[in-house]
Amino acid sequence: MNLRPPVLAVLLASFAPCGAPAIAAAETVVTGPRHADLLAVADAFDRAQLAQDRAMLERMVDDGLIFIQSSGERAGKKAFIDGWTAPGDSYDPVKLSDRVVIRLGADAFMVSASAVLSGTSGGKRFSSSFRFTDTFRRIAGEWRAVHIQVTRIPG
């Protein structure tokens, strides 16, 4: 999935902030302690994407981000953020399924889910089914996305 022209950028997911499209997670499987803290980070990240909040994404995405697009191409922070914040794009509410949160240690965790992202890009409607995995590390006391992989689900 080429997450930019003509459609989106990256896909992730989880609950909506004020005025942002809603995202609902069906079942969430969490392994390890303090899962509420990890879900709060993942949800804030997803809200920032759907709300197209460039400032929040700049803070939450590590400068060294490795972003594997559905095409298999590797990109970085700029491509990820530009894809989510393109002028004229808008996103519908998203429902996550099969969401899993795995703590990888005291300072790392990953979140994976399936979703259908739809909305408008370049004046045209789009809909894309995908599975994603976001990996976060705590760096200088702040959780940052360090690796994101998106896989398109045919259909």
What does this protein look like?
By secondary structure, the chain is of the alpha/beta class. The chain contains 3 helices and 9 strands. It has helices at residues 35-50, 54-60, 77-84, and strands spanning 23-25, 28-31, 61-68, 74-75, 90-91, 94-105, 108-121, 124-139, 142-152. Strands 1, 2, 3, 4, 5, 6, 7, 8 and 9 form a 9-stranded mixed sheet that branches. Strand 3 and strand 4 (74-75) form a beta hairpin.
Number of helices: 3
Structural class: alpha/beta
Query: How far apart are the first and last residues' alpha carbons, in Å?
Result: 13 Å
Order of helices and strands: EEHHEEHEEEEE
Q: Give the low-pLDDT segments.
A: 1-21
Biggest sheet overview? 9 strands, mixed
C-alpha geometry = globular
Strand content: over 45%
Mean pLDDT: 83
Q: Percent helix among the residues?
A: 10-25%
* Rounded radius of gyration (Å): 14 Å
* Secondary structure tally: strands: 9
